[in-house]
Amino acid sequence: KSLGANFVNKWALTLNTALAMHKRDKKLRFLQKKIGEISLAMFRAETDSLLQLPNNIISPLRTDEEGNVWFFTAYKGEFSKVAETSFPACLEFYRKGVDGRLFTNGLASVIRDDNSQEPGKILIRFRIVHARYSKNRNRFYNSLKTRISNFFRGLFATPQFQEFDLQEAMVQSR
Asked: Each residue of 98-115: pLDDT tens digit?
């Protein structure tokens, strides 16, 4: 290959990487905003670990620039026997009166921090891999005509949700 072709290929790869990172950052900012607005979620661990993590309502402490949600949750098992491992989990963000729901899937990790350990609670870092945001639909219709119109519009309308695949963006940016 010529020197010019190599330069163009490297430049295109750099540009594609920058665009992928920009898209990922834009998605993360949107998700951070929605997590902050809703600020309550149902945490479900999709594994049967030594901690015996029950389904819990959590309130996020923070969401960082890497797509991690940090929060405390209760556990029933023995914390001293648990090694730092990752396990699949999901967070479902919803609060009555807030427009929208956010469903996230990802990997949760137990963070060992003996200084800030509360009795019966552990610190979790949840890395968002996939998210789906949907707006709440207004369920109050004025007339039968409006109900029928909304029904048929719903059959042919585009979905009222946004999908975010952060894993794809992270792989492209590396």
From this structure: 878 999 999 999 887 666
